[in-house]
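Submission sheet (multi-component)
Chains listed below:
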Amino acid sequence: MVTSTYHVKGMTCGHCVNSVSAEVGAIPGVSDVQVDLATGQVTVTSESPLDTGTVRAAVDEAGYDLVEA
Amino acid sequence: MVTSTYHVKGMTCGHCVNSVSAEVGAIPGVSDVQVDLATGQVTVTSESPLDTGTVRAAVDEAGYDLVEA
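Outcome: structure written.
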């Protein structure tokens, strides 16, 4: 298992957290997504390393932006 | 038709607007709900005057608070 951490901006409430969790959680191989609303930190657990572009696309689909590392 | 205006606090994003709109829109007799996220103003169109307690309960169900007039 691999754990990766990202930062997402624009989330303002629990609904936003749910949207990001649902989209990122739907990426193949992802087994867990933890979102910290206050910091925008998104911790993703997956079977193998994730492509950042794939994560960015999922976050974008939810309506938010992945902050560049 | 009657148009009533309320103020709701705690809405931070479009998801919040959707939640409030859905709950208030489900009150019997309500035909339209317009929510202004920036001001928290909720304008409700209904067949007859609404009981404020009913509106408050719907807003509460959505997870927000009706501001006392």
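Remark: The mean pLDDT of chain A is 96.
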